Amino acid sequence: MAKIPVTVISGYLGSGKTTLILECLKNRVHERIGLIVNDFSEKNVDADTIARSPYFTEKDELIPLSKGSISSDLLPKLEKALFDLAHSGNVDCILIEGSGIATPQSIAQLIMESEDEKGNQLSDILRIDSMITIADAQRLAQQFDPEIGKYNHEFLDSNQLIIKQIEYCDILLFNKLDLVADREKQYLTNLLRTLQPNARFIETTFSQVSQEQIIDTYLFDSTKPLLEDDDTDDLSDRKDTEAGDLGIESFVYRRRRPFHPARFDAWLDRWPRQVSRCKGVMWLITQPDDVFKVSQSGRAMDIIPSGYWIASLKQWEIDKMFDIRPHLQDIWHERFGDRMIELVFIGKDMDKKHIIESLDQCLYLDTEVIPYQSDPFRIG
Fold first, then answer.
1. Residues 6+ apart with CB under 8 A from 261
2. Which residues, in sequence order, are CB contacts of 81 under 8 Å at separation 6+?
3. Is the dihedral of CA 206, 186, 154, 199 positive or negative?
4. pLDDT at residue 347, rounded to an integer
5. pLDDT at position 147, please?
6. What is the C-alpha radius of gyration for the chain, rounded to an integer number of angstroms?
7. Which residues, in sequence order, are CB contacts of 9 under 8 Å at separation 6+?
8. Residues 139-175, buried b or exposed e (16+ Cβ, 10 A)?
9. Residue 249 CB partners (closer than 8 Å, separation 6+)
10. For 192-251, how does the pLDDT look when each residue is reduced to its tens digit (9 = 90+)?
11. What whole-number distance in Å separates Cα of residue 65 and Cα of residue 288?
């Protein structure tokens, strides 16, 4: 029996997700469509809009999920809705519209790993066809174009989420292009393709797109491991790049020595305005066991402990990890083990030389003695 295809649609508030759903209903590829529509508020306006649409038929199934996000507190309800639709025999495909604050990775993980009380796997009856993210050109221009308003405090809380949605997708719809100037469009196109070089890239207005580009695509790779929050393998082969003639570029800062916590903390206060995105891992001399994850967009910055370095384990545990992860030998350092600083920077007209030199000045020197209590990143 063929698995039912599932398309997951993500995008920040007002990006055009519901409009895309209506487009899918209007120019439908499948006769019977199951719809799961998430709204963070108590009133599910999007579900009401879809239900009242002339394109929504009696053969379609609509399940609204409200008062929360299906990527966090509503995950159990999403799981039940998916099992119900899959077992109903009444749908040929399923479209999931996440709330504006939903993270697509969590939704994909649920579909891939969920099972019911009888041990039935959701992935045995459903397959993820594609993860779609809609990027709102007008909002992106306001948030990430240095000449328009990259550092507007109104957008600080949303920067990280929008970046995550863009980085985790198979199809990236660049929407609302009618609302930005040509220069802004070119700049944002370069930025998006640098942030997400692998997804199918489609330019749209009013979320209008031919259905064969987004439905039954088989673009989602179910054999590829889902990236965990502290996974950095995607950085290991990252090369310095340049995109277009508007100054968008990326480079990776790699060092084996740790940061001096106080000097690095002071460096953060002088964060280069030209950097739109930074992510990766680092370690501190005062906390040699802990992996610190770095994730920045605009002025929104997260630096949090995220696991431990294998080099901090007992020798027999390290030996076992070498058996489990053969590639570990490729990154192992005689003195530092797997400990490293690895940060990718993406931005416009960055002074790469200055950033590298100033970060190098933050590295720990062997002659220094640094008490743990003086570490601004200390836990507790």
1. 284, 285, 286, 370, 374, 375, 376, 377, 378
2. 36, 63, 65
3. positive
4. 83
5. 66
6. 23
7. 17, 20, 21, 95, 96, 97, 98, 132, 134
8. bbbbbbbbebebeeeebeebbbbbbbbbbbbbbbbbb
9. 194, 240, 241, 242, 243, 346, 347, 348, 350, 352
10. 998 899 999 999 999 999 999 999 999 999 887 665 544 444 455 555 655 444 557 889
11. 44
Q: Which two tokens stand for residue 135?
A: 């990027």
DSSP state at residue 2: P
Instruction: State the greatest distance between any 2 C-alpha atoms of the chain, in Å, as a whole number.
Output: 75
Residues of the chain with pLDDT under 70: 1, 145-158, 225-247, 298-300, 380
Closest CA relative to residue 252, chosen from 356, 349, 331:
356
Report helix, strand and coil shares of the chain as percent, to nearest 5.
35, 25, 40
Phi, psi of 242 (to 5 degrees): -130, 140
354 token code pair: 């200055």
How confident is the model at residue 245, as a pLDDT? 47
Of 10, 20, 298, the closest CA to residue 158 belongs to 298
Amino acid, single-letter form, for residue 264: F
Single-letter amino acid, residue 211: Q
The pLDDT assigned to 243 comes to 47
- Residue pair 284/375 in contact (Cβ under 8 Å)? The answer is yes
Distance CA 230, CA 85 (A): 33
